[in-house]
Amino acid sequence: MNLSESISAVLILGGMFFFVAGTVGLLRFPDFFTRLHALTKADNLGLGLVIAGLAVQASSWADVTRLVLIWLLVLGASATLCFLVARTALRHGQKPWTK
């Protein structure tokens, strides 16, 4: 295993950790909004690390560009969808968690 494969493996495993952390947050947090926040933030970071790990192994700059564009599209879609879901939940009477 050479250096680029090791770096790629570490980045992809780091991304998997954040995917698992987001899933745990989804299952453990007390209300809808905190669950939504945990899931979107952890998944965006996890996907970024996986994309970075794949970019290390990419054969050309065109492949790296495609991977980064996919990540940016997912970031934009995730942020937009999170906002819309949270706003709809507020409009339907869902209250944020307080201690």
Top keywords for this entry?
99 residues, mainly alpha, elongated
Q: Can you walk me through this structure?
A:
With 99 residues, the protein is mainly alpha-helical. The chain has one domain (3-91). 84% of the residues lie in helices and 0% in strands. Helix 1 runs antiparallel to helix 2 and helix 2 (32-57) runs antiparallel to helix 3. The radius of gyration is 17 Å and the shape is elongated. The model has no long low-confidence stretch (mean pLDDT 93).
Write a brief caption for the model:
84% of the residues lie in helices and 0% in strands.
Mean pLDDT: 93
What's the number of helices? Answer: 3
Q: Major sheet: size, sense and barrel closure?
A: none
Helix-strand pattern, N to C? HHH
Give the low-pLDDT segments.
none
Give the topology, please.
Elements: H1 3-28, H2 32-57, H3 61-91
